[in-house]
Amino acid sequence: MTGTIEIKSYILSFGPAADVIEPESLGKEVADELQPMLARYTSESPSRINNAASMRK
């Protein structure tokens, strides 16, 4: 898994235009990388609420 750090970063740099066609395992790694970020922006977790409140000060 650590052997793909650079290519995953490169792929993610394309933002929503990124599309991993092959290999399927790399697409899964990219998806796994995105899940925590997606959760951070789609949930009202306490840390997200606290961060938003502190930014308003």
Write a brief structural summary.
The chain is built from three helices and no strands. With 57 residues, the protein is mainly alpha-helical.
List the helices and strands and how they pair.
Elements: H1 5-12, H2 24-42, H3 46-56
First-residue to last-residue Cα separation: 40 Å
The tally of beta strands, per DSSP, is 0
This entry's quaternary arrangement is single chain
User: Over the alpha carbons, how many angstroms does the gyration radius reach?
Assistant: 15 Å
Q: What percent of the residues sit in helical stretches (DSSP H or I)?
A: 55-70%
Strand content of the residues, in percent? under 5%
Helix count, DSSP H or I runs of 4 or more residues: 3
Could you report the average pLDDT, rounded to the nearest whole number? 85
How is the main sheet built? none
Q: By helix and strand content, what is the structural category?
A: mainly alpha
User: What characteristic shape results from the CA principal axes?
Assistant: elongated
SSE succession: HHH
Point out poorly predicted stretches. none
Please tell me the total number of domains.
1
What does this structure look like?
The protein has three helices and no strands. It has one domain. With 57 residues, the protein is mainly alpha-helical. The protein has helices spanning 5-12, 24-42, 46-56.
